[in-house]
Each structure stands twice: as structure tokens, then as C-alpha cells.
User: Fold this.
Amino acid sequence: MKVLLLYPPREYYIFGITPHVYIEADAGNYPPIGMLYIASYLQKYSDTEVIVLDAYTEKLSHSGVKNFVSQIKPDIVGIYFSTYYLYDSILVAKNVKEVNKEIITIAGGPHTVFYPKETIQIPEVDYVMVGEAEKSFTEFVNYITKKDFRSIENISNVVTKNNPDKIPNRARIENLDELPFPSRELLNYRKYCSILAKKNPITVMVTSRGCPYKCYFCSNIESGQKVRYRSAKNVVDEIQYVVEKFGIYDFLFFDELFTSNRHRTMAICDEIIRRGIKVRWHCRSRADVLDEEMVKKMKKAGCRLIQFGIETGSQRLQKVINKNLNLEKVNQVVKMVYDNGIYTYADFMFGLPTETEEETKQTLEFAKSLKLDYVSFGMFHPIPGSVFYDEGLKEGRFTDFWLEYVKNPQSVIEDHSWTRKDRKKYHDYIAEAYKKFYLRLSYIIPHFFRLDSILQYKWQIISGFKVFPKLILRQFR
Ligand code: B12
Ligand code: SF4
Assistant:
């Protein structure tokens, strides 16, 4: 049995919602870690030959993917489905079936959690799998190998053509330490990089799954969930393994909130320090869960950048979005992290529900007032699975436009939401915000002296030249 796990090309990102300056800056590319987890489990618990293709990083077009599939002749193709690149995932499925309609296609990834029924209705998709798939995908492949198609119906997180209305159980793996480390060797692991890393290649790691918070704009399938943590030993074993096997020293932790458990964060740091592993890592955190003792230890263990989701500079809106950060505390913590020599990065949004023009300005002013090395500004739009989306629907502000889109996917979606009529205004404001934040001498000079590698100087200057002319001339998408 030959299984191909395929991360699609990204040719049809749904533009028109947020100006995607981030993508245009070539911020980097990251290994599709979820698929590598599935691959390693499959290798350990079945006799399957597994191939992983990251078409995006390999810069393959859809016809390139088609040629690849014709050459390697897989029996099963597992395709990553994300809502924002739905069109690309569907094109992949179509092309696979055009190569040989006997190839079994199965869709997985975040989109299937929100839209299992609509996904199984795509003619070229044979099966849909919902949630964490290491175990269930292996079970699925083992049934296919035995030609036991009936038993597939019984896998609780699989939807089939025979039963499109099935409400699948979303799979969650309780003990993450049980999982074998992701099979990075199946990819061209030297190709992965980040504009913010000290040295490339980088790799990514997931040390916990889940997020205890419930921000109302967030559609994260993990939000409001009990967090499942890997043990500190298991995490550091993986770091050490990656260093020794692949010679990679730069890690991005993709956990929603790496620091949500203070005790574990400290234990991971202690273990890295104890083993003397000289790595650098980036993670995400809420500002209000950090204290100086923790930050100093994180720095000592190689923490190089912390990304904070701050979202708004209005204390009133913090409540409206249920993020509930105390902005005064945010200010102090960001400064403390910055002063401890760790890069600070924050995400903000404009156009939140009930946001006034004054509050939009306040967000930009707040961003400028913080000791930040990097920011990202976006525009709020309601996404399926979020509280605001459900509220907007209930209040009759818009129709279920995402559902309409996924039932009849085109390459572009019409956003009927709060900010639609003001979209141009917000796009302009985002462009202004980037200029006002980055093109300040009080930002540029200290930041210049904080950069820690030649690569950093090179990448940031190049991307600055790429992005700012577009922002100034408003030529971004
Ligand atoms: C880290 C992250 C990023 C990183 C890196 C993304 C990347 N390329 O890896 C960055 C910051 C770049 C990013 C960008 C974006 N992201 Co993001 N991101 C995440 C985050 C926090 C973690 C992803 C992760 O690594 N999870 C850990 C691994 C182990 O889980 P996993 O990938 O889901 O894989 C498991 C299952 O899904 C399943 N599975 C996965 N693939 C397949 C394939 C098959 C065949 C099968 C059967 C199963 C299967 O099994 C895996 C193992 O259990 C998630 C939230 C989350 N909790 O998932 C959002 C999330 C995936 N991102 C999301 C979005 C919207 C985006 C952006 C579009 C945002 C934007 N507006 O630009 C971009 C798109 C970039 C892209 N195409 O990936 C959404 C997707 C929603 C959706 N319905 O599709 C999520 C779910 C968050 C949210 N807001 O809801 N993201
Ligand atoms: S925005 Fe971040 S902190 Fe808030 S619920 Fe989503 S993942 Fe959790």
C-alpha cells in the first residue's frame, strides 16, 4: 500500500478579506507538521509506504502535482484541507482523480472540522476525516489494505459517501507523549525557513494542543478546550533528536499558547539548560501569564522571540472580544520581555464589532507605544466557528456566506460582514498603520541594533524594500 500525504499549492488564497502583506513579504515556509505526525504514526503502526509532498514549499503548480501523482502511483492520497485555500485542495482532489479514479482520496485538516458534510459532497473526495488523525488515519489505511471497506464506516471521525449526514466525533489524542516524533526526514527539511529566524533552516514543533481561552473572534478549533501538554522530557527529547539528526537549531513552537502552564514552561527550560542544548526558539504567549523569573529562564534556554495576540488597544474592546487583557499589564510585560533581550511581536486587528474610529486610532497608538520589534495588523472578519460569526448570523447582519461559499467554492469569497462596506477604509488604514509603525526613527534605530545576525539584516532590508513601496502605492492585494 502506498500512501501520499499532500499539502496543496497555494494559488487561490481568498484575497479581498485582508491585505496580505505578510504573505507578500515571503515570511517563510513551515513544514506541514500535522501531516508529518500522521506519517510517523503510519510508519510505526503499519506496513505502509508513506510519501509526503509539500507542494507549496516545493513550488509545484497544480499541474506539477498532477505529474507527481502520475509518477508515484499512490493507492491513497490524503489531502490537507484549509478553508482559506479550499479551492486549491479541491483542485488537488480533481487532479488526483483525473490521473486515476481508482486512487482513494481522503480529506483532513482544519476545514473538515467545520464543514464535514460539505466536504464529503465534493465529488472527487471519497472520505473525510475530522480532527487529530494519527490513530484514525492508520486504522483507515489498515482497513483499506484488508479491503474491509465496511469497517471504515465505524471509524467515529470518518464521514463517507454512504452516510454524508453522519455527525463525526472529533478525534483528540489524550496522551501526546505517546506519539512518535513527526517524520521530518520525509520532506526536504532544509527548505524550511522563517524571515525572523536567526539561522535557517528552521523547524516547527507542537508541544501542547488546545487553548483554555475563548476569544469571540477566534475560530480556532482548539479554543475553549482543555489543554493537553507533552511532558518537558518528551519535548526536550524531540529538540535534541532534531539537533542531532538534522542539524537544525532554530525552532518555532506552533502551540496556541506555549506558556499557558508556568510549571511546564519552567521545566522545559530547565531541561534544555541542563542538557546544554544550544537552540533558539520562538513561541506564542499571552502577556498576562509571564513574569520576570519565567522570562529570564526562557531567555537562558534559548527563547528568542515571543508573539503576543494583543488585538486591540482599547480596554473596552478587550472585553467585547473576550480577550480581557489588562493593557497596562501588557505594556509592562512587553517592555520586560524586550529589555530581557527577547524579540517582541504582536498581532492587532482593526474593525472589531462596535469599534469606533477613535478606538481604531487607539489601537495603532497603543502598538506604537509598546516596546515591540514586530507587528502584524489585520482586519477583523467573522470566521466560521467563532462566537462573532454565530452572533452576526443570529442578529441577521449577514447570511451564512461561508457556508454558501463552501457549498459552491469559487476562487474568491464575498465577505458580507461588519466591515464589508468599510473594507477600503480599513485596507488603507492597515497600510497607514504599517508605515506609521515601522517607518519611525525611534523604531528603526534601536531595532537595527537589536538584530542578531547578518541573515536578519539581509532579509529584513530586502522585505522592507519589497513591502513598503507597495504599501505606499497601495499596490497590495
Ligand atoms: C501555527 C498555525 C499557523 C502558522 C503556520 C501554518 C502552517 N502552514 O503550518 C501560521 C502563522 C503561518 C498560520 C497561518 C495561517 N493560518 Co493558521 N494556524 C496555526 C495553528 C495555531 C496550529 C497549526 C498546527 O500546526 N497544529 C498542530 C498540528 C499537529 O495539527 P493540524 O495541523 O491540525 O493536523 C492534525 C489534524 O488537522 C489532522 N490533519 C492535518 N492534515 C491532515 C490531512 C489528512 C489527509 C488527514 C486525514 C488529517 C489531517 O491530523 C493532524 C494530526 O493530528 C492552527 C490552530 C490549530 N490548533 O490547529 C491555526 C489554523 C490552522 N490557521 C488558520 C488560518 C485561518 C490561517 C491563515 C489562513 C490565517 C490568515 N488569515 O492568513 C494562514 C494560512 C497559512 C496556511 N495555509 O497554512 C485556521 C484554519 C481555519 C480553517 N477553517 O481552515 C486555524 C485552524 C486557526 C483558526 N483561526 O481557526 N497558521
Ligand atoms: S485567539 Fe488565541 S488565546 Fe484566544 S481563543 Fe484563539 S487561540 Fe486561544
Notes: The chain has a mean pLDDT of 92.
